[in-house]
Design brief:
The protein is an alpha+beta fold. The strands form two sheets. Strands 1, 2, 3, 4, 5, 6, 7, 8, 9 and 19 form a ten-stranded antiparallel sheet that branches. It has a six-stranded mixed beta barrel with strand order 10-11-12-13-16-17. The structure holds pyridoxal-5'-phosphate. The site of pyridoxal-5'-phosphate has 13 residues, from strand 13 and helix 7.
Length: 363
């Protein structure tokens, strides 16, 4: 394993280096209003190796290419996990992270499920902060709707063909500027129910591991080909209850104004979803619940949405199931409760509204 040909900076030297870099107030040629969710190479990423039972000190490097052995278990047996979170530019020009501690904990859970070494919460958070600071020029300005997406990941490396945990690991964090994940922002989009499952009921649906996503690509492709934004997965055991909306969680607003979201062991515990559960209850004064959401009982909802770091809140216009499109509030307009939730959540993420204790990390 080597660090590649790019510049590598050890963290002990890094603060000095970063200060020099930031003074240069680099400008990058990016059309902030046109950003989607495509890869853009930024200047620095964090890279750390685990060997012989311990993590090294970690570096920031300019090299965006990983050098792996051909028998690395991540390549054959999917021993890898990842996270996704965002850094935001506030109106005052400051930078903040949203609930990074929650991503750190979910990452540890994924590592444990796949028998990978855990990353201490403080190391995870510091790596994210260092990468954001080193790539400050790529953080979209306030008001553009863009943000800096941060992608931490761990892979099992070292040559080992047997189906067993790797003996070496790489933890890396890169970032890129992003705009809307589903085109159209707060415009509702339609989804179709898939016959495929993304995860088994006692499998890895609760963890953010690559295998879940590989298993979801065909269902996604079929939905997109048929003109839908993405597919909806039902529970793998009975195929009667809503689980996920593509790579986002589902929520519905009942006709009696409750915020309802599915409860299942094979759903990824969305940090956005738990934030909305809190905001619906404590800011909007709604009753909230995690419960079974039967696909045959969509009439109970006056509004529905998909939520996640990438999706933020995407209103669901309708869900296609059994040859029929069930429309919630409207296929063209966002519903009033969904709009209020969106405004509250994004105001906290962008620093316009103070969030609950501990939600925001100021850089
Ligand atoms: C399958 C899946 N569900 C839900 C979510 C939403 O989780 P979060 O709100 O933590 O981003 C994600 C990630 O964005 C996901 O990949």
């Amino acid at each position: 394993m080597h660090h590649g040909s790019g510049n590598v900076f050890f963290l002990s030297e890094q603060n000095r280096y970063l200060k020099k870099e930031l003074k240069m107030t680099k400008k990058v040629a990016i059309n902030w209003d046109q950003l989607g969710f495509d890869y853009i190479k930024t200047d620095y990423r964090y890279l750390s190796f685990w060997k012989e039972g311990q993590w090294d000190d970690g570096v920031l490097t300019e090299d965006n290419v990983l050098h792996l052995g051909e028998a690395a278990p991540c390549l054959h047996y999917g021993q890898q996990c990842f996270e996704g979170l965002k850094a935001y530019r506030t109106k005052a020009g400051e930078i903040q992270l949203f609930r990074v501690d929650q991503n750190a904990r979910r990452f540890q859970d994924s590592c444990q499920r796949l028998l990978m070494p855990v990353i201490p919460e403080a190391t995870f958070i510091k790596a994210c902060i260092d990468v954001v600071k080193a790539n400050e020029a790529y953080i979209p300005p306030y008001g553009t709707g863009g943000s800096l997406y941060i992608r931490p990941m761990m892979i099992g490396v070292g040559n080992s063909v047997a189906v067993k945990p790797a003996n070496e690991y790489i933890f890396t964090v890169f970032c890129m500027p992003v705009g809307a994940y589903f085109k159209g922002g707060l415009t509702p989009v339609n989804f179709m129910v898939s016959d495929y499952d993304r995860a088994a009921c006692n499998g890895t649906g609760q963890q953010k591991v690559g295998g879940n996503y590989a298993a979801s690509m065909l269902a996604h492709e079929i939905a997109v080909r048929k003109g839908y934004a993405d597919c909806i997965y039902l529970d793998p055991t009975t195929h009667t209850k809503i689980e996920e909306v593509g790579a986002a969680n589902f929520f519905g607003i009942t006709r009696d104004n409750r915020f309802v979201t599915p409860d299942s062991p094979s759903i990824l515990p969305s940090i956005t979803k738990y934030s909305l559960l809190y905001l619906a209850e404590h800011v909007l004064g709604m009753a909230v619940s995690e419960e079974d959401v039967f696909i045959d009982e969509l009439d109970q909802f006056s509004e529905a949405g998909a939520c996640g770091t990438a999706a933020v809140i995407t209103p669901i216009g309708g869900i296609f199931h059994h040859n029929r499109l069930h429309v919630f509030y409207s296929q063209t307009e966002v519903g009033p409760v969904t709009k209020k939730l969106y405004d509250t959540l994004t105001a906290i993420q962008l620093g316009d509204l103070a969030g609950p204790e501990g939600w925001i990390t100021h850089l």
